[in-house]
Amino acid sequence: MSKRYKDAYTKVDRDKLYEIEEALKLAQETATAKFDETIEVSVKLGVNTTKNDQQIRGAVVLPKGTGKDVKVIVFAQGEKVKEAEAAGADVVGGEELAEKIKEGWFDFDVVVATPDMMSVVGKLGPILGPKGLMPNPKVGTVTFDLEQAVKDIKAGKVEYRADKGGNIHLPLGKASFSFDDLDENFRTVMETIVKARPAAAKGRYLLNIAVSATMGPGIKIDPQAIIRMLG
Fold first, then answer.
1. In terms of Cα–Cα distance, which of 225, 216, 224, 207 is closest to 11?
2. CA distances from residue 204 to 46, 197, 208, 231 in whole angstroms, order as listed
3. Domains in the chain: ranges and CATH
4. Cellular component per GO (predicted)?
5. Which of 21, 54, 116, 227 is at 20 to 30 A from 122, Cα to Cα?
6. Residues 176 and 39: beta-carbon distance below 8 Å
7. pLDDT digits (tens, 9 = 90+) for 27-59
8. DSSP letters along 109-145, please?
9. Distance from CA of residue 147 to its chain's centroid?
10. Quick one: which of 75, 78, 85 has its CA closest to 118?
């Protein structure tokens, strides 16, 4: 452990379940690296994602954004090219864009495609899939409504997916955000996750919740605090 991490670690009671406000403020306080750290939330859910009826995947728009400049590329043709460019897409293309990616270009964060371009994008599956960049209609990245898709992503739309252990990890914003902005993003994320509960999931749904800065220790939140927050 570095001295910086040890100092941050001593501020956190590892056995305590914190209230939301205290946890978020502590996450900001322990963000002492030389860059603007991301505040993240990790949630362990009581689901069995090996069963089709308990898989959880979707996207949520953080009302206060992520604090990150997201680079979006769009696969489109015809009039949709102009729509994507007008919406703020960083790069728009077709076959030539696919070739560029095959050659090793990855200067982007999100890929959006119109349905009629998936025959081109589909061939990039072995490249984009492992990096979690493959467009998917379930999260709104395969769509003809490019204006809305690009604007949502630029505004702070992030994807989530429960892994094999039922864990979801999402950014809440930067340590430099105001507490109110982080709190609003946190509330939106938790409302979305709770609403995504599969009908087939039995027993406790919210098992463990923790927030942390990129280089900081995890700070556990009382699951009952989420229930109280959501009413």
1. 216
2. 6, 11, 10, 17
3. 10-66+157-230 (3.30.190.20), 72-154 (3.40.50.790)
4. large ribosomal subunit
5. 54
6. no
7. 999 999 899 999 999 999 999 999 999 999 999
8. SEEEE-GGGHHHHGGGHHHHGGGT----GGGT-B-S-
9. 20
10. 75
* pLDDT, mean over the chain: 95
Query: What CA–CA distance (Å, rounded) separates 23 from 15?
Result: 13
pLDDT in tens, 160-196: 999 999 999 999 999 999 999 999 999 999 999 999 9
CB-CB contact of 47 with 196 (8 Å): no
| Buried-state track 13-46, b at ≥16 Cβ within 10 A, e below 16 | eeeebbebeebbebbbebbebeeebbbbbebbbe
Helix crossing, 223-230 with 179-195: angle to 10°?
90
Matching residue, tokens 């009382």: 222
